[in-house]
Amino acid sequence: MELKHMAEGKEEAMEELTERIKEDFLPVELTATSEDLSETTVDEAYAKDIIVMLGRADEGEIKLGDIELKVNKCELPEKTKIELKHKLRAVRTKLSCEKLDDILQTVVAKYEKAKVDPREAVGIVAAQSIGEPGTQMTMRTFHYAGVGAIYITLGLPRIIEIVDARKKLSTPTMTIKLLGEYASERNKAEQLAMEIQETHIRDIGRIGISTGDMSVWLSLNERELEKRHIKREEVEEKIKGIGADMLVEMLEDGRLKIRGESKSFHELSKLERTVSNTLVKGIEGIRRVLARRETGGEYVLYTVGSELKRLKNQKKIEGVDFKRTKTNNIGEIAEVLGIEAARNAIIDEMSSTLKEQGLDVDARHITLIADAMTTDGVVKQIGRHGIAGGKASVLSRAAFEVTVDNLLEAAIHGETEGLKGVTENVIVGQPIKLGTGAVELVAGK
Amino acid sequence: MKKGKDSILEHELVPKHEIAGEEEVAELLDTYKIRKEQLSKIKLSDPVIKEIKAEVDDVVRITRRSEIAGKLLSYRLVIE
Question: ipTM greater than 0.85, yes or no?
Answer without folding.
Answer: yes
